[in-house]
């Protein structure tokens, strides 16, 4: 088990202040040396709650603890982390845009861009990590802090573990932003269900490995909860051009059809489809919202806006 965040001599970890709005889930960040933190959401204006702090970028890797790991048992190890991906709202590459008219007066705006900035944050389930900045020794924020600890090389360390940190990093890749003009939906789980249905549809229609794609929601000013944007992105370093291929009307119609077909083939949740499974919407990367995913809501929506 990793117990240390690796340090290099005379090199500090990069650190960023970050905040995630409790109301709309928007993400903002700034280098820790340039700000003292955030008080309000930059999208909906709500006061920032407890989902904020400093994340360390573990760019040099990790080091395993010296304790004996013991014999592996049959029980699954306890999950001690929560990792989420967020879109910063920033991109620095050229944009391509196309609009697709759907039924019911809804217009789908597709915007592709390179070098979209995203962030991966691991806050250990809001507990954070207590980290010794001298040697990198780390414990979960809900664990007791030892009175003394040793360096990775077995020497006594004089460092203190006073503050909690998250772990994270920001990266750039190709993105596709989807926004449904003229439609809003505040049902719990609808937008995440639609997001993951479309990701499965992209994978199927465009013959792209599902593990090379991912997505997140991005709250838009004005109606961040009822009508967020959906962000699809290449989950490979620097981007591979996958999602940029979708900025063509016919390509995305194929995606919508493939998404609907996959959901209709599944039988979870019975006739109403008020459920999800690994055969339709669930994926190991979206475990944080498994209980909210619902294929029935997406079937109803896609069948209405994209009639055969």
Short précis:
This protein is α+β, with helices and mostly antiparallel strands. The chain is built from three helices and 15 strands. It has a domain of 167 residues.
Explain what this protein looks like in three dimensions:
Helix content is 15%, strand content 31%. By secondary structure, it is an alpha+beta fold. It has a domain at 90-120 and 170-305. The strands form 3 sheets. Strands 2, 3, 4, 6, 7, 8, 9, 10, 13, 14 and 15 form an 11-stranded mixed sheet that branches. α1 (190-206) packs across α2 and α2 (249-265) packs across α3. The longest helix has 17 residues, at 190-206. The relative contact order is 0.15.
Topology:
Layout: E1 2-5, E2 15-20, E3 27-31, E4 52-56, E5 62-64, E6 83-91, E7 95-101, E8 107-122, E9 129-131, E10 138-140, E11 149-150, E12 156-157, E13 164-181, H1 190-206, E14 213-218, E15 229-234, H2 249-265, H3 295-305
Parallel strand pairs: 4-13
Antiparallel strand pairs: 1-5, 2-3, 2-4, 6-8, 7-8, 8-13, 9-10, 9-13, 11-12, 13-15, 14-15
Helix pairs in contact: 1-2, 2-3
Low-confidence stretches: none
Order of helices and strands: EEEEEEEEEEEEEHEEHH
Percent helix, as a range, is 10-25%
Number of helices: 3
Question: Structural class of the secondary structure composition?
Answer: alpha+beta
- Mean of all residue-level pLDDT scores: 91
Whole-Å distance between the termini? 52 Å
Number of strands: 15
**Outline:** elongated
Q: How can the largest sheet be summarized? A: 11 strands, mixed
Determine the strand fraction and express it as a percent band.
25-35%
Question: What integer value in Å does the Rg equal?
Answer: 22 Å
């Amino acid at each position: 088990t990793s117990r240390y965040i690796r340090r290099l001599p005379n090199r500090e970890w990069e650190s960023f202040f970050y905040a995630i709005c409790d109301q709309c889930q928007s993400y903002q960040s700034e280098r820790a040396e340039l700000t003292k933190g955030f008080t309000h959401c930059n999208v909906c204006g709500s006061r920032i709650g407890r989902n904020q702090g400093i994340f360390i970028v573990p760019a040099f890797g990790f080091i395993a603890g010296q304790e004996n790991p013991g014999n592996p048992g049959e029980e699954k190890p306890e999950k001690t982390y929560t990792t989420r991906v967020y879109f910063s709202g920033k991109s620095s590459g050229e944009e391509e845009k196309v609009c697709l008219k759907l039924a019911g007066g809804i217009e789908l705006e597709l915007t592709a861009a390179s070098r979209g900035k995203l962030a991966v944050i691991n806050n250990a389930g809001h507990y954070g990590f207590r980290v010794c900045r001298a040697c990198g020794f780390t414990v979960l924020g809900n664990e007791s802090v030892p009175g003394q600890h040793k360096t990775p090389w077995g020497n006594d360390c004089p460092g203190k573990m006073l503050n909690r940190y998250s772990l994270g990093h920001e990266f750039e890749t190709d993105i596709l932003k989807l926004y449904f003009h003229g439609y809003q939906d505040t049902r719990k789980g609808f937008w995440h269900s639609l997001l993951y249905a479309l990701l499965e549809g992209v994978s199927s229609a465009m013959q792209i490995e599902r593990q090379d794609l991912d997505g997140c929601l991005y709250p838009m000013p004005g109606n961040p909860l009822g009508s967020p944007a959906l962000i699809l992105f290449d989950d490979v370093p620097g981007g591979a051009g996958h999602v940029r291929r979708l900025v063509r009307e016919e390509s995305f119609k194929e995606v919508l059809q493939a998404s609907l077909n996959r959901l209709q083939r599944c039988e979870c949740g019975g006739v109403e489809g008020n459920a999800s499974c690994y055969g339709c919407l669930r994926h190991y990367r979206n475990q944080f919202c498994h209980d909210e995913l619902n294929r029935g809501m997406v079937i109803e929506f896609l069948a209405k806006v994209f009639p055969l």
